[in-house]
């Protein structure tokens, strides 16, 4: 076999650990072992039948050829209208690129802002794929630790200190996966100030903008002076339970969007037309539908926090958004990886050790609230008794 590229070989920079529990849980499941899987952010419901009907009608109606590369005009308009309504920022189809999921929007954004070797500063803990996506696009990720004591909100001074001659962008995510932090006005102003002072792009991943449990969602692009340097990543995965349809978007300045259409021409070649039509149908279901998809996580978060209120060894960060809870397990004396490994072995429950999301989440595990309420509360009960047992 000829050589596999260093770029692809180096995507995870040898940081495979942190994903061991996830892979082991998958392997056990494949062997038929019953595992309570609280690892990844996927709803316990499937895509709504009405959306699937729209998808089928579109495909049967003939929308199975190459679709409009930037996205269909109707879908771009609908996304633009949603962004305008939610953020107050006038947005038109020229600001919108439809992508195969938020992940492709992230990659596209990074390709647009960086030349090879450029650096991207990102608050740590971060969504697990971020460093690899930066590397895939030829850049260098620069994690900037945040602190549990600060509710994992990034500080402007820390971000600024991470900026060097080769910095091209900041990449932030609010509501945040894995921490559940929602960045408040002070944090967002700090991020905007650093981006402007150092003349950087801001990539703002807002795929959890419908999963907000307290406070308001501030979109970075709506801050003064930020529209021309901000690329917002959106997705139908979490808001509409459409993870498998691979449909998302990037919103930014028209000149950047036009260049990224050229990139799409040479990479993805767009998104299936019938998926775009299904997405349009889904968006037209409006905010009530989005609230319905988010409701179980709101309810489960509250129930789990109440249960955890009585726990001695495990402390929850009361997330303000997203479909996870970040649990501080430092009082058990175990590392997060050891805790998660033993939880899998002894209770057949799979959670993500904090190390999967960077160094700043050490001593924490992330639990996805993606099981029906009773099963989830049983799993939390079991986790709490496990924590007591290992202390005994
Ligand atoms: N961004 C964040 C913070 C996520 O948690 C995810 C998925 O879990 C994504 C982006 C990518 O989602 P998708 O590609 O399904 O839109």
From TrEMBL:
It holds the Pfam family Aminotran_1_2. Keywords: Aminotransferase, Pyridoxal phosphate, Transferase. Transmembrane segments: none annotated. Residues 35-379 form the Aminotransferase class I/classII large domain. It catalyses: L-aspartate + 2-oxoglutarate = oxaloacetate + L-glutamate. Signal peptide: none annotated. Its EC number is 2.6.1.-. InterPro entries: Aminotransferase_I/II_large, AspAT/PAT-like, NHTrfase_class1_PyrdxlP-BS, PyrdxlP-dep_Trfase, PyrdxlP-dep_Trfase_major, PyrdxlP-dep_Trfase_small. It is an enzyme of class 2 (transferase). GO terms for molecular function: transaminase activity. Its cofactor is pyridoxal 5'-phosphate. Belongs to the class-I pyridoxal-phosphate-dependent aminotransferase family. This is Aminotransferase.
């Amino acid at each position: 076999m000829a050589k596999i590229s260093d770029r692809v070989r180096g995507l995870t920079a040898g940081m495979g650990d942190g994903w061991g529990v996830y892979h082991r849980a998958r392997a056990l499941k494949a062997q038929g072992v019953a595992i309570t899987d609280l690892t990844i952010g996927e709803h316990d419901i499937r895509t709504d039948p009405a959306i699937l009907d729209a998808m089928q009608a579109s495909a049967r109606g003939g929308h199975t050829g190459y679709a409009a590369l930037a996205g269909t005009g109707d879908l771009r308009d609908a996304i633009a209208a949603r962004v305008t309504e939610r953020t107050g920022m006038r947005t038109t189809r020229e600001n919108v690129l439809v992508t195969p999921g938020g992940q492709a929007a992230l990659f596209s954004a990074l390709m647009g802002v960086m030349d090879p070797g450029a650096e991207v500063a990102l608050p740590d803990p971060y969504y697990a794929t971020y460093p690899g996506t930066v590397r895939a696009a030829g850049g260098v990720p620069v994690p900037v630790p945040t602190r549990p004591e600060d509710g994992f909100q990034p500080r402007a001074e820390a971000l600024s200190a991470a900026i060097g001659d080769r910095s091209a962008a900041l990449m932030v995510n609010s509501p945040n996966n894995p921490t559940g932090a929602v960045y408040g006005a002070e944090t967002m102003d700090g991020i905007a100030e650093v981006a402007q002072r150092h003349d950087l792009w801001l990539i703002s991943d807002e795929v959890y903008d419908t999963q907000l449990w307290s406070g308001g969602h501030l979109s970075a692009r709506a801050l003064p002076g930020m529209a021309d340097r901000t690329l917002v990543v959106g997705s139908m995965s979490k808001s509409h339970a459409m993870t498998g349809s691979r449909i998302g978007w990037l919103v930014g300045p028209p000149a950047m969007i036009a260049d990224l259409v050229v990139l799409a021409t040479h990479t993805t070649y767009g998104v299936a037309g019938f998926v775009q039509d299904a997405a349009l149908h889904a968006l037209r279901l409006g905010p009530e539908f989005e609230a319905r998809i988010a409701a179980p996580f709101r309810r489960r978060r509250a129930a789990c926090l109440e249960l955890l209120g009585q726990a001695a060894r495990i402390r929850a960060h009361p997330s303000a958004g997203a479909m996870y809870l970040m649990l501080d397990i430092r009082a058990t004396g175990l590392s997060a990886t050891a805790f998660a490994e033993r939880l899998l072995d002894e209770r057949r429950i799979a959670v993500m050790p904090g190390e999967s999301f960077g160094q700043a989440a050490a001593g924490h595990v992330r639990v996805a609230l993606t099981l029906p309420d009773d099963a989830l509360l049983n799993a939390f009960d079991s986790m709490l008794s496990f924590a007591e047992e290992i202390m005994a």
